[in-house]
Amino acid sequence: MSNEPAITLSQISKVYKRYHRPVDRLREVLLPGTPRAEEFWALRGINLEILQGDTVGIIGRNGSGKSTLLQIIAGTLQATSGQLQVRGRVSALLELGSGFNPEFTGRQNTFFNGRILGLSQAEIADKFDDIAAFADIGSFMDQPVRTYSSGMFVRLAFAVAINAEPDILIVDEALSVGDEAFQRKCFARIYEMQTQGVTVLFVSHSASSIVELCDHAVLIDAGEVVLKGLPKTVIANYQKFIYAPADQRDELRRTFQTQSEKAAALSSEHATEAAIDPAASSPRPIVAASDDSPRSLYDPYLLPQHSVQYQSRGARIKNPEIRTVDGQPANLLLRNETYIYSYKAYFVDAAWQVQFGMMLKTLTGFELGGAVSHGMRQRLDQVAAGSLVDVEFEFSCSLLPGTYFLNAGVRGDINGEDVYLDRAIDAVMFKVQPEVGLKATGTVDFQAVARVVTTSAVV
User: Fold this and answer.
1) Which residues pair with 345 in a beta bridge?
2) Which residues, including other chains, have CB under 8 Å from residue 423's CB and lie 6 or more apart?
3) For the segment 341-383, what is each residue's pLDDT rounded down to a tens digit?
4) Please, are residues 12 and 72 in contact by the beta-carbon 8 Å criterion?
5) pLDDT reading at 154 higher than 90
6) How far is it, in rounded angstroms, from Cα 49 to Cα 115?
7) Is the dihedral of CA 25, 27, 29, 32 positive or negative?
8) What phi and psi, each to the nearest 5 degrees, are found at residue 353?
9) In Å, how far are 159, 302, 325, 337, 431 from 289, measured between CA atoms?
10) Is 94 in contact with 172 (CB distance < 8 Å)?
11) Which residue among 212, 302, 334, 423 is buried most deeply as judged by most CB within 10 Å?
12) How many CB atoms lie within 10 A of CB 432?
């Protein structure tokens, strides 16, 4: 990654005029100084700097201004005010249908769109076979685009976008319409472009995709930047925000914006690691075993620094912890041992159709897996106000050495809607201890056994 900015936005705003009647637009033209329109601010005072080679995820509710922002960066929409600087060739995969003529064939649209992206006719011809191979739509390449399914359309659009050799790639949720095999193919190509130093802007409602793909994340709501920082932290707060009661969201927005103003938008790699995993930056005392045999241990300083707890809707999660099967506290675990993750749920109000859950995540926030206490048709019918419920999940530690986090959640029915009554993200932090001679790789131990047999060559 470079320290040079690829994209700089200074006080970018976009306002639309909404007329109640078509004739009001004419009256405003004929009678200047007499506004007839209602102003809608899609974006208001956006300030962002995105460095070259960074991958930034942009998240927010529908209508928050994400797509408008990307269209301005891509150059397909003009900002009402503010300054925009973009350094390098931009290739954008925006909303389905943009940039393609439905009456043209796939082949014609490839050349047409390639020219828009800045390629010459000869360059497009040279890349056409690669584009056709990646899109993999066969004879439909010579059929009008209006005959395409949404999946075929996005295949061709993405193939053109990535083969334009962009300095900046913008992807706005369009990949969600593709099949899973094609999505995996696209993400693999995006990873390849990241290693080549391409700057990527990525909009998705998939939290795991943002966490796995992006270096940084930006939360936009009501046309304003609400929070920016590490994907894991931004996603956790975004989930807290969307599940909060509507009358509490304005207060949360102000809190997030204050946090964002105090924090550096972009951190060095070392600072990022230390922020997520403070235990990695300095040695900590631990409660050790009395002999040299491997034991589960407890480090009182190994605590999550970015825990997020939802606004309570009648319940409150308390005292989350990990214990060994004989009841000892532990957060330095051993591979393939069994542990108990527990917490208490205090119910301020009576609750119906109650379910408890856990989720285990990696250091970056990628969800590895979890469990719930009751199936959809087996939930607790009612929990009385004032109840204190002990919740336990027994699990086998099938993880390889590393740092991990646990969530806790309580769901219930409020006015016919299944909602979180409380949720704690990164409630507990733990590590799996390293081992000498470990042969497993990656994150999860699948108990793989290698067998290598050498035989004489057959001529």
Assistant:
1) 317, 389
2) 239, 240, 243, 309, 310, 317, 407, 408, 409, 410
3) 999 999 999 999 999 999 999 988 889 999 999 998 899 999 9
4) yes
5) no
6) 28
7) negative
8) 50, 60
9) 57, 17, 16, 16, 16
10) yes
11) 423
12) 21
Element (H, E) at 71: helix 66-74
- Enumerate residues 6+ apart whose C-beta is below 8 A from 350: 314, 382, 383, 384, 385
Question: Which one of 198-207, 254-263, 415-424 scores highest in mean pLDDT?
Answer: 415-424
Structure tokens at 79: 């900002």
Residue 229 CA to residue 264 CA, distance in Å, equals: 8
E strands along 119-271, which residues? 168-172, 199-203, 216-221, 224-229
Q: Specify the higher pLDDT residue, 459 or 7.
A: 7
Q: Which two tokens stand for residue 331?
A: 């957060």
- Report whether 252 contacts 241 (CB < 8 A): yes
Closest residue by Cα to residue 338 from 322, 325, 320: 325
| Strand 315-324 with 332-333, pairing | unpaired
Query: Which position has the token pair 């304005």?
Result: 250
Q: What share of the chain is helix, strand, coil (3-state, %, to 5)?
A: 30, 35, 35
Q: What are phi and psi of 34, to 5 degrees?
A: -120, 85
Burial of 451 (0-12, 13-18, 19+ CB in 10 A): exposed
**What per-residue confidence (pLDDT) applies to 334?**
95
Of how many residues is the chain composed? 459
Residue 286's pLDDT band (cuts 50, 70, 90): very low
pLDDT for 287 equals: 46
- Whether the Cβ atoms of residue 94 and residue 170 lie closer than 8 Å to each other: yes
Identify the CA nearest to 243 among candidates 342, 312, 304.
312
% residues pLDDT > 70 (the chain): 88
Structure tokens at 269: 């790699």
What type of residue sits at position 141? M
Report DSSP letters for 390-408, one per residue: EEEEEEE--BPSEEEEEEE
Strands 216-221 and 55-59: parallel
Compute the mean pLDDT over every residue in the chain, rounded to the nearest whole number. Answer: 86
Helix (H, G, I), strand (E, B) or coil at 43: strand
Q: Pairing between strand 55-59 and 199-203? A: parallel
Q: Which amino acid is at 179?
A: D
Residue 168 identity (one-letter amino acid) = I
> Are the C-beta atoms of 357 and 411 separated by less than 8 Å?
yes
**Angle (deg, nearest 10), helices 150-162 and 180-195:** 10
pLDDT of residue 250: 85
Alpha carbons 170 and 95: distance in angstroms, whole number: 11
**For residue 303, pLDDT beyond 50:** yes
Q: Is the pLDDT of residue 14 over 80?
A: yes
